[in-house]
Write a structure and sequence with these properties.
By secondary structure, the chain is mainly alpha-helical. The protein contains 31 helices and two strands. Strands 1-2 form a two-stranded antiparallel ribbon. It is elongated.
Amino acid sequence: MQLVFSVLFLASLCLPLFSNAQRKKGGDNKALASAGKVMSYQDSAMVKQLFFSALREKTVENYKLATEMFERVLQADPANDASLYELANLKRQQSDFAASEPLLEQAVAINKDNEWYWAALADSYEKTNTIDKLENVFNQLIRLNPDKSAYYFDKANAFTILKRYDDALKVYDEIEKLNGPSDDLLANRQKIYLKQGKIDQATSELEKQIAANPGEIRYYLALGEVYNSNGFADKALKVLQQAEKLDPRNGMVHFALADIYRDKKNNEASFNELTQGFAIPDIGIDQKINIISGYFPKFPEANAKASALELSRILTVAHPNDARAYAIYGDMLIQNTKYKEAKPVLKKSAQLNNQVYNVQEQLVRLDLGDNDLDAAIKDGENALSLFPNQAWMNYLVGVAWAQKKDNNKAVGYLKNATSLELQDKELLSLSFSLLGDCYHELKNIKSSDESYEKALTYNPDNAFTLNNYAYYLSLRNEQLEKAAAMSAHSNELQPNTASFEDTYAWILFKQKKYAQAKEWMEKALTHDKDNSGVKYEHYGDILFFLGNTDAAVTNWKKAKGFGEQSPVLDRKINEKKYSE
């Protein structure tokens, strides 16, 4: 357990006066006694000058020189408590608390009435976990400043850490005599009673507060928490139900009841309390978002997703001007595959606060998923005006331009993505793969092949890259062995994919392996849900070379019927033979 002190250390604002100034002075040849040696008046003046020079170096953050100067002061005047204190502070600044402690112990031994010395020593003991020495330190601080309640609280905290619970309670009694009763005292006593296992005493104190202040809901909440955390759920429920009757608009009461009902496995009642609490604007949105986040580990369980969705919807009603409410609601809509509903919600979040990048990216992804390419470009380019160095956003805008067949613009954004991101292998693989597609469309074969090769260095198992690269090689009738290997691997990675099977069949066709090509093309047609004219044309080509001209013509005609249009296809049908 960490001891939290409320002591204010003002070393940087307040400088202790020379305690040496209190030393007795003689006549003309005045001398100051210091640690068993006598300094002349001239020596004393030199020490003072050196001390103030050290302070100046400390002020300009020349800590090394300041340290050396304070050490020189102490060589000349070992009892110079102000230098001991300043040197200790420099050590503490460097987190060298072990070195600061003996310096501070010397300083308080020389000057027992300097509050700042004792406060610094308390901090040092806390940092080195020397808790057993703190009692005397806080006794001294209380002696010097008996009206400062913070010192009493710190002393009680030290006793609590040392498990001297009765001593801590006595200190709290002193504080009450000093300042009267308070919620802080009540809470601290509760903690000690619970550590001592005195549940009855802890609850009794709270029941007295409720009796004296029946309208103060915080006491009901505290009592409910004590009961519930110690296995008395029924008593906690009764207390909180009383509080709910007194103040039905208190969100904390609803949340506390939700916890109890959840522990009792009454999920319906628990969720009902949560929805009531979420609808109350006075409860901060951060706490509500944390509650929604608690459902995430249960995803993809349908009930968890539905509950998080409803709570996030209520969040937007209770906090209509907070972008975070719409951001998490949009995210929950996406989790529940309600993509069309999510889009306007995320737009609202971005309108309220356009500085959240993740919201902008989600919005563009939804645009692309909806095939709304113009919206993807508009939203994406707007996001890039705010976040120009986001590689993923450059990639997404590049995807939109590529799908619109504006390959030159797509290339510009994709190259940005690859230059902005050097570590994300997934993004680099996707970007170079799409660059390969775009360069192919632009007839820049060299750059296309180089891009595909780079994509595969980042992800050799990217099935789409393997398929596209292999297909374009086969169209050029180049490196067919390499193309076949890549295509076969893509089918291993993503089996039963019609377009991949078509590619592999076409490469086998190019290699004159017609029987194998027929087998793979039939797989492609089996898995093809779109009745692709290209696949039927390819099937006809294969059948022709297997000597089945009638079946070839039949499939060429099917290709034409499914929308495939080209002079080459017409020539195949009319001449009843293969043509390139």
